[in-house]
Specification:
CATH topology: Rossmann fold
Helix content: 40-55%
Structural class: alpha/beta
Mean pLDDT: 93
Low-confidence stretches: none
Order of helices and strands: HHHHEHEHEHEEE
Number of strands: 6
Radius of gyration: 16 Å
CATH class: Alpha Beta
Shape: globular
């Protein structure tokens, strides 16, 4: 039986291979990318309000990575929903742990975030994020540079809770506790990940509840 770390290392290896074998025009069509990003339906009752300009930006952002334009995906609407929740907390600078393709950062800019932003991720994925964000910048003119931050509001959606114990401990001790006086995290332990939260925060069930066991952490 594989340990959680072995399972996670294999997932990351497949994720990186999927990104490296795809182009900026089709990566969202790769089965592994679809699985990692999570294809979901977003209930109409939780549909966030956006302006016409924001809607146009979100369409562009969400369609980068597909050969043909489609409606804004449920996965993107989920990002918008959480972006609006985070923006209500008025963060000046944001540190994201586990940024996927980089799309949540692009969504934050589309929704009006103007502070500095930095994504912690494995180097091979960071390289892809830079390419994706450059493509978004080209098509939207949004400013999507990254700045290494000493302090910031921590964001992590469906990443930190999955990490193996050693990696999770590193991010808690070296990033959350040292750099992030406040934060918003969706904690989703599964496939053997430790469910225990390793730092002081308010723990509630994720809302809207997409998966049993997911928690919403704030501090």
């Amino acid at each position: 039986m594989k340990s959680h770390k072995q399972w996670l290392d294999n997932e990351y290896e497949q994720w990186v291979q999927a990104l490296n074998s795809s182009s900026m025009y089709n990566f969202k069509e790769h089965p592994m990318v679809k699985r990692m990003l999570g294809e979901i339906e977003w209930a109409e009752e939780f549909m966030p309000n956006v302006t016409g300009e924001q809607f146009q930006l979100l369409e562009i952002i969400d369609n980068i990575g597909r050969r043909q334009n489609e409606d804004i995906s449920g996965t993107c609407w989920r990002m918008v929903y959480y972006a609006k929740m985070i923006l209500k907390r008025n963060p000046t600078d944001i540190i994201e742990i586990g940024g996927g393709s980089g799309q949540f950062y692009a969504v934050m800019r589309a929704m009006g975030f103007v502070g500095d932003y930095y994504i912690y991720d494995i180097p091979s994925v960071k390289q892809f994020q830079y390419r994706y964000l450059a493509e978004v910048t080209y098509h939207t003119k949004l400013a999507l540079t990254q700045t290494m931050l000493e302090k910031g509001f921590c964001v992590s959606l469906y990443a930190l809770g999955e990490f193996d114990d050693e990696l999770k401990k590193f991010y808690v001790q070296e990033v959350i506790q040292k750099k992030c006086p406040h934060g918003f995290v969706i904690w989703n332990p599964h496939s053997g990940a430790t469910a225990e939260v390793l730092f002081e925060c308010t723990v509630k069930d994720e809302y809207p509840l997409l998966n049993p066991g997911n928690k919403q952490l704030e501090w």
